[in-house]
Amino acid sequence: MKTLLSNKFAPITFTFGFVESSFDLFSEAFVSWRGDLDARFKTRTETAHFVAPLDEALKRLEPLTDPLDRYVLVETRSNWTGIFSNGLRVNDVSSPVGHLSALLQCKGLTVSSVPDRSEHTDGGSMRIYGATKFTLYGPQKTDWLNRVRHVSVTNDVSGWEFVAEGEVQPYEQVDNYSKRSLVERFTTEMLESYCRAIGIELFDDTFYGGQSLLAHVTNRLGRRGPIMSISEARSHLYIHE
Fold first, then answer.
1. Which end of the chain, N or C, is less surrounded by CB atoms within 10 Å?
2. pLDDT per position as a tens digit, 74-120
3. What distance in Å separates the CA atoms of residue 218 and residue 221, rounded to the nearest whole number?
4. Least confident of 14-28, 82-96, 171-185
5. How far is Cα 195 from Cα 181, in angstroms, rounded to an integer?
6. What angle in degrees, to the nearest 10, is found between the helix axes of 23-41 and 94-103?
7. In the predicted model, what is the mean pLDDT of residues 22-42?
8. Burial grade of 126 (CB within 10 A; 0-12, 13-18, 19 or more)
9. Is residue 32 over pLDDT 90?
10. How far apart, in whole angstroms, are the C-alpha atoms of residue 186 and residue 183?
11. Are 166 and 142 a contacting pair, CB within 8 Å?
12. Closest CA to 109 of 180, 181, 195, 28
């Protein structure tokens, strides 16, 4: 399957997102949103601006934690800005993408490209289930918040499932959705094609880089899960160079 940076930064690159906004505007809105959450939940968000290529920007997300406590916003060679997080098991970028695309009155997108490792059940592994997802958000309220379109193929304990919900987009390969094999109904090649149609070169690392913003959420209450470096996490995911 196709992945960003050959999954050298997995699980960071399993799921990430975009907002169709300039880096400066999205950064300002993101910091304001985090400020509101800090006031509500008594947390603190520390931010730092820097300039770096994508691989250097993603290193700033270490260590990986559960729940996540860091985000990196990354400028791209388009009118979209990327967002990544440091969740060890769950990378929730849908909250900022969905909320801020509505606030900024623009499109938002979350994507997933997760290799299936569900066969690994030993104690040293993090069992992950395969997924390919495309979720498009818009500025207006829909039947499900402001989600416009969701297409996915996912695996879980009950097996593989294909889902297509919302408004069909003109660039979709809808004939593929009737294939007998569920896994083949929505592939990473199709995901890449859908993203390219809206101006995102999803798996091209040179598409990303330039200005970046690191946001670190501290003072969070509750129990913390495991903490790992990227290399440690990859070893538990059975992903090797």
1. C
2. 999 999 999 999 999 878 899 999 999 999 999 999 999 999 877 76
3. 9
4. 82-96
5. 23
6. 110
7. 97
8. middle
9. yes
10. 7
11. yes
12. 195
Distance separating alpha carbons of residues 82 and 33, to the nearest angstrom: 16
Q: Which two tokens stand for residue 232?
A: 């440690």
Measured between alpha carbons, how far is 75 from 207 in angstroms, rounded to an integer? 9
DSSP string, the chain: ---GGGGTTTTGGGEEEEESS-HHHHHHHHHHHHHHHHHHHT-EEEEEEEEE-HHHHHHTTPSBBSS--EEEEEEESSS-EEEEE-BSS----HHHHHHHHHHTTS-EEEEEEE---TT--STTS-----EEEEEEE-SS--SSTTEEEEEEEEEETTEEEEEEEEPPPTT--GGGGG-SSGGGTS-HHHHHHHHHHTT--TT-GGGEEEEEEEEEEES--S-----B-HHHHHHHTT---
Q: What is the pTM of this model?
A: 0.94
